[in-house]
Amino acid sequence: MKILVPTDFSMYADYAVDAAIKLAKHIDEAEIHLYHSADLPDDWEDLPSEIRYKDTFNKPRAIWVRNKLNKIKAEIESNGITSEVHYTGGKFVKNIREVTDKIDFDLIVMGSHGISGKEEWFVGSNTQKVIRKLHNNVMVVKEDIKKICFDEVMFVTGLFENDKEAFRRFLEFIKPFNPRTIHVMSVDTSSFFSQPSNVMYAALKDFEAIAADSNVETHFYKDYSIVTGVTKFSDENNIDLIAISNQVRHPLKRVFSGSNVEMLINRVNVPLLSIDYKYKL
Asked: What is the chain's pLDDT, residue by residue, as a tens digit (281 residues)?
């Protein structure tokens, strides 16, 4: 598994690096790639070496970034994990997309401080922008994870057909962590479902069949919003990891109501795994 960890060298980025190390220890042949978007010209790495050498303004910045990345790389490799570093100048989302286009990453691990507010739906944090604009599986961590312990995990579904494939991918991902219970839950809101509850329970049974070899519990939860329902369920059941399929949404709908995945980033403190509908884990 190739894991990409974007870092701005902040405390929250350090949480992501540490979480990636702990994840990699559970996964055979995992490797961690570090990425930093530096305050440098877009084409810095493509410039001739003599030009970069004479650039007394940008050269010290580039050296500082390389040293910081190499220090983290050494820490990762001290845990017996293969690591590589990447850095570019220019805008973060544009350049991380170029990195992910070149290398087929299985998972991106990012830290987030969970800034909330209406302005986030128009601008958004870098973590939200990655989930919104890149077709990749993304795990978001907001706290220092002392130990990877995914005993009680949950998969949130809107009962879309694509969710079944995302659930299969989640089962493959979570298998090495030996979860005690896999909760599959869907939230009934007055504006979301039009089918009777018995139809929804029957649909949830499909997920039980997919995970026949695991201890799966299905839940049909009622609340006024999906985000509130997921948050309450997570708190009540001491959930260690929340997974959700990242369905494509119309840009205008996201602006006015917000993406459920992006909103959950602001509301939950446990790790959140956004499973892209196109990517394997």
From this structure: 999 999 989 999 999 999 999 999 998 889 999 999 887 777 667 667 777 777 778 788 888 888 999 999 999 999 999 999 998 887 888 889 889 999 999 999 998 875 544 434 334 578 878 887 888 899 999 888 888 999 999 999 888 888 898 999 999 999 999 999 999 998 877 655 455 667 777 888 899 999 988 999 998 887 778 888 899 999 999 999 999 987 654 443 433 344 677 778 777 889 999 998 665 56
Picking from 78, 111, 144, the residue at the C-terminal end of a domain is 111
The pTM for the full model equals 0.85
Q: Tokens representing 51?
A: 């030009």
Q: At what angle do helices 126-133 and 260-267 cross, to 10 degrees?
A: 150
Q: Residue 146 falls within a domain, yes or no?
A: no
Q: Are residues 172 and 256 in the same domain?
A: yes
Q: Which helix (H) or strand (E) holds 67?
A: helix 58-77
The whole domain housing 245 covers 152-276
What Rg do the C-alpha atoms of the chain give, in angstroms?
Answer: 20
